Amino acid sequence: MDRFSILFLIATVVTVVSGIRDDFLRLPSENVEGTRWAVLVAGSKDYYNYRHQADVCHAYQILKKGGLKDENIIVFMYDDIAYNESNPHPGVIINHPLGSDVYKGVPKDYVGEDINPHNFYAVLLANKSALTGTGSGKVLDSGPNDHVFIYYTDHGGAGVLGMPSKPYIFASDLNDALKKKHASGTYKSLVFYVESCEAGSMFDGLLPEDHNIYVMAASDTGESSWVTYCPFQDPRLPPEYDVCIGDLFSVSWLEDSDVHNLRTETIHQQCEVVKKKTIEPLIRDGTHIVQFGDTGLSNQSLFVYMGTDPANDNNTFVDKHSLVPPRKAVSQRDADLIHFWEKFRRAPEGSSRKAEAEKQLREVTSHRMHIDHSVKHIGKLLFGIEKGSKMLNSVRPAGLPVVDDWDCLKTLCEMSVRTFETHCGSLSEYGMKHMRSFANLCNAGIRKEQMAEASAQACVSIPDNPWSSLHAGFSA
Fold first, then answer.
1. Which residue is catalytic, options 57, 197, 230, 424?
2. CATH number at residue 452
3. Taking Cα atoms as reference points, which of 210, 127, 113, 234 lies closest to residue 165?
4. Does some domain include residue 78?
5. In which element (H, E) is residue 148 found?
6. pTM (two decimals)
7. Distance from C-alpha of 354 to C-alpha of 350, rounded to nearest angstrom
8. Using one digit for the tens of pLDDT, what is the confidence trace for 217-270?
9. 287 or 11: which carries more pLDDT confidence?
10. Which end of the chain is less packed: N or C, by CB atoms within 10 Å?
11. Cis peptide bond prior to 117, omega within 30° of 0
12. Binning pLDDT at 50, 70 and 90, where does residue 3 land?
């Protein structure tokens, strides 16, 4: 081969390789176009729910280190934990027994009563005119080339997610908002992590697969999600803490993001870490991490949505996790009992603190028994002793939504829940476990008048304690 032929061959190879690099071999950091946006939502309030705000604050710190700007991170957080009188370290929130403060620097975009479904949807759809209250006014003002990350953590039930300012988020409304966001053409891709009991029921049979939206949910329909880093678990909390400070699904992905190079780790790899190393091996009842929507997006680098901490750029992804599995997993719905029990256990014998802690513990357990008994009694009144429990607790097959007619569910379930609460008192966060029962009333064709009569018979009076009070409004 003569010199000219060799030079021509080299030039051809260089051109081809350059073209391949442009199209196929670009690093994740080079592929990202547009702006990264994030919406972080802690859907609870009160100190016994410490972990939800801790999760959100931790998520903010990861995104901030990843290079996202505060103007592109929108935080919903009641903000009653950091300076709560029960917090042993005022102004500090931790998300790991040996962790540092995650509260410092977190934007207070929407706090207190401004955290409600109305404002959440307004933010998602960048509808500033629809916002209410005194929040920052920041909205998800993304463009067609932008990448969006949404993270929600709180309590949930069949087809609903909690909010500190009632009413609940209904699955139909949430999916309608996501569909509207897609129709507006104001994002390139959207990733949504959801931590709650029955998180999968918010999307199962509802979220389209062709909207460039990927969802990872902490639990499937009919399943609980789980808390961790509680007073009795290993690794041990500092002794001054009497509350669980993290959610198992959440700290799994958060701590994974803390240590890995997110330029090279994919969403799918992170999902596998969460499934294999934390949730499924620990929970004998079979809680599962579930995925919905455009699952092809899970092959993308986490860097596309979260950026990456430059300190981790030389780290290589391996299928292991820094989380030390707790000895026992605790259901989200029982985390408050741990806090109240610890307050009672630690209070000095014969003290006023002991008496007050005992009163709180009695009230919360009494409320739970009242709610469970009332719903069960209503089922028997409406469907008979033999069929009542089966009718209220039946779960539809995977792939189907809680109901086919969500307008029916919202209307009748809202009436049913309001009717129940009028006669029996507030459901509270614990009572969200019975939302499937109210959905099944719709499926069975129960009318408002029938529900009112059954509720009146089941609940002669409303217990006189703060858990049953309706001062905060109706759940639905």
1. 197
2. 1.10.132.130
3. 113
4. yes
5. strand 147-153
6. 0.91
7. 6
8. 999 988 999 999 999 888 899 999 999 999 999 999 999 999 999 999 999 999
9. 287
10. N
11. no
12. very low
User: Are 380 and 286 found together in one domain?
Assistant: no
Residue 430 CB-density burial (10 A; 0-12 exposed, 13-18 middle, 19+ buried): buried
Which of 58, 155, 268, 370 is catalytic? The answer is 155
> Residue with structure tokens 């089922």?
379
pLDDT at 319 over 60: no
Query: Catalytic site residue 197?
Result: yes
Kindly report each contact of residues 255-260 with a partner whose C-beta sits within 8 Å and lies 24 or more positions away, as own/partner.
255/96, 255/321, 255/322, 255/323, 256/321, 256/322, 257/62, 257/302, 257/306, 258/62, 258/309, 258/322, 259/312, 259/315, 259/322, 260/302, 260/312, 260/315, 260/317
Q: What is the CA radius of gyration of the chain?
A: 24
> pLDDT tens, 117-135?
999 999 999 999 999 999 9
Q: Which token pair is 301? A: 């680098």
Q: What are 177-228's pLDDT values in tens digits? A: 999 999 999 999 999 999 999 999 999 999 999 999 999 999 998 899 999 9
Q: What is the pLDDT of residues 386-432, one digit of tens each?
A: 899 999 999 888 888 887 766 666 665 667 788 888 899 998 899 99
Amino acid found at 362: R
Structure token digits, residue 313: 């750029």
Question: Is 112 in contact with 64 (CB distance < 8 Å)?
Answer: no
Please say whether the beta carbons of 389 and 434 come within 8 A: no
Cβ atoms 142, 30 nearer than 8 A: no
In this structure, are residues 63 and 39 in contact, taking their beta carbons and an 8 Å threshold?
no
Q: Is 74 helix (H, G, I), strand (E, B) or coil?
A: strand
Same domain, 285 and 400: no
Question: Are both 356 and 273 inside the same structural domain?
Answer: no
The answer to the question of residue 289 being in a domain is: yes
- Domain containing 407: what range? 347-458
Residue 306 one-letter amino acid: M
- Taking only the tens place, the pLDDT of each residue in 431-474 is 999 999 988 888 888 888 898 899 999 998 888 888 888 877 77
